[in-house]
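Weekly sync, protein design subgroup
Attendees: M.S., D.O., the rotation student, P.L. (late)

Item 1: inverse folding check
M.S. brought a backbone from last month's batch and wanted to see whether the design step gives back something sensible before we order anything. D.O. pointed out we never logged the input encoding, so this time it goes straight into the notes. Structure tokens as presented (495 positions):
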């Protein structure tokens, strides 16, 4: 018995254990499949912590990384890889650093939502918002917006083309390094898969709100987008993009010191949309003063490009009466005499004669004159507001309530205690430059000489140039008491 326990029993146990292992080894066990697949990560790519997103069940979530492989539904694993989808066509070169701060372009393997356009739009917005890289602090691009696009009437795009969306980043981008840039991209739902077709980075935009991009109709051969963005403290930027079914083009890019740097509008009434670039000077005095010197550039589409139209006299081949009135109005407008130019060009409406160049001149004059008129009627510093409109009688009326010693004194109420206080050099500049334009066209305009003399007196009280201008005004309009009394005062006071 001792021999069995000490020698044979261990051998029997060893044999039985060996047989058991052989039996187990002949069987196979399938591991339970995970309910949430993860994106594949390259072997040489370091991984980062898993990010869990709560997404609607119809959305196929893209990776927060720049990897083009997207298979996760509710859980995704980010990677540090920086790659871009080969299906993306961009018009602006993007560095790897800059691209890392933008959402990835879902590859054709990214499953898109199906159903109504609104459902797909919401899904695309959520998909790309979830794909944005994380940002810290109060600034940084944290969301995108998508809008469905309509192929315009008369379009030349292939029939049956998949639907298109414009996708753009929103919010205030980060100003830290590495830099962020806002973007606009074109996406499609290609057989149930999201695909980015083209992308443009906006070089000047600091801020874009949810309504910052809208589709406009300019030419039926392309899809057009208007982009309004903010820059700096209160500046505005304006872009016009076109998509030709291949590439997204940046056709117009402009900024101004105030929001509303541009617009899309039919200026001349021909039924076609034109580009209006707002080049207004918002710093006549200070920005907050609200006094503006308006200037607009208008660019119609000429089939392959935008080309600016400017005020110009008609050719001698245009109808005689139309030519006479139009050319007179153009000359007045170029001299800053917008009120008179507006009245003159309005007379052409009674004529039965037409000419495309005359129509453009009338439209440009109306665009500017209306802006100056509204400012003249409502601004709290009417001296310059009415002068900019070319309303010389109205400008002189601002001066009439004051006695000559008050009007021409060192503490004239048109400066001291008024909006112009602290801005006397700017006031002199604007009055002299505006009146100089008018005098070139109308050398007998007495009010222009008087106002220029007053402005020169602000700079150098009693200067010979100031007195000479008032003398010229009194000579051209001897019945004007304001001129005569002012001249008598200046002569009595001396230099």
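Designed sequence read out in the meeting:
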């Amino acid at each position: 018995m001792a021999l069995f326990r000490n020698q044979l029993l261990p051998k029997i146990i060893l044999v039985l254990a060996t047989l058991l292992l052989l039996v187990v080894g002949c069987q196979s066990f399938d591991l339970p499949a995970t309910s949430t697949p993860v994106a594949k990560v390259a072997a040489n790519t370091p991984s980062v912590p898993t990010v869990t997103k709560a997404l609607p069940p119809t959305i196929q979530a893209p990776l927060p990384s720049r990897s083009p492989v997207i298979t996760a539904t509710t859980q995704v694993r980010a990677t540090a890889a920086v790659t871009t989808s080969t299906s993306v066509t961009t018009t602006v070169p993007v560095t790897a650093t800059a691209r890392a701060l933008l959402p990835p372009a879902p590859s054709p393997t990214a499953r898109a939502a199906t159903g109504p356009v609104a459902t797909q739009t919401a899904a695309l917005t959520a998909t790309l918002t979830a794909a944005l890289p994380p940002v810290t602090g109060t600034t940084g691009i944290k969301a995108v917006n998508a809008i469905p696009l309509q192929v315009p009437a008369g379009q030349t795009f292939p029939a049956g083309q998949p639907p298109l969306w414009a996708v753009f980043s929103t919010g205030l981008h980060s100003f830290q390094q590495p830099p962020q840039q806002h973007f606009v991209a074109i996406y499609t739902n290609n057989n149930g898969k999201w695909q980015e077709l083209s992308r443009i980075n906006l070089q000047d935009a600091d801020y874009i709100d949810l309504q910052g991009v809208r589709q406009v109709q300019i030419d039926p051969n392309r899809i057009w987008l208007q982009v309004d963005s903010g820059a700096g403290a209160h500046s505005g930027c304006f872009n016009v993009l076109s998509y030709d079914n291949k590439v997204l083009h940046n056709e117009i890019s402009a900024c101004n010191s105030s929001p509303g740097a541009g617009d899309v509008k039919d200026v001349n009434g021909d039924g076609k949309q034109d580009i209006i670039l707002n080049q207004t000077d918002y710093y006549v005095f200070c920005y907050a003063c609200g006094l503006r010197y308006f200037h607009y550039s208008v660019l119609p589409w000429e089939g392959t490009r935008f080309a600016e139209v400017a005020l110009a006299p008609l050719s001698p081949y245009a109808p005689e009466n139309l030519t006479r009135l139009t050319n007179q109005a153009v000359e007045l407008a170029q001299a800053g005499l917008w009120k008179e130019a507006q009245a003159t060009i309005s007379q052409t409406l009674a004529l039965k004669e037409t000419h495309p160049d005359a129509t453009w001149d009338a439209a440009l004059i109306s665009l500017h004159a209306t802006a100056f008129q509204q400012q003249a009627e409502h601004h709290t510093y009417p001296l310059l507001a009415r002068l900019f409109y070319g309303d010389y009688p109205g400008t002189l009326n601002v001066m009439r309530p004051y006695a000559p010693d008050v009007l021409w004194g060192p503490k004239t109420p048109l400066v001291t205690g008024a909006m112009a206080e602290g801005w006397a050099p700017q006031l002199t500049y604007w009055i002299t430059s505006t009146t100089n334009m008018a005098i070139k066209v109308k050398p007998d305009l007495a009010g222009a000489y008087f106002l220029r003399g007053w402005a020169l007196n602000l700079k150098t009280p009693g200067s010979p140039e100031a007195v000479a201008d008032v003398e010229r005004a009194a000579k051209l309009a001897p019945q004007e008491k304001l001129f005569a009394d002012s001249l008598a005062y200046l002569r009595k006071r001396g230099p």
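Discussion: The CA atoms of residues 272 and 304 lie 15 Å apart. The domain at 382-493 is CATH 1.25.40 (Serine Threonine Protein Phosphatase 5, Tetratricopeptide repeat).
Action: P.L. to compare against the previous round before Friday.
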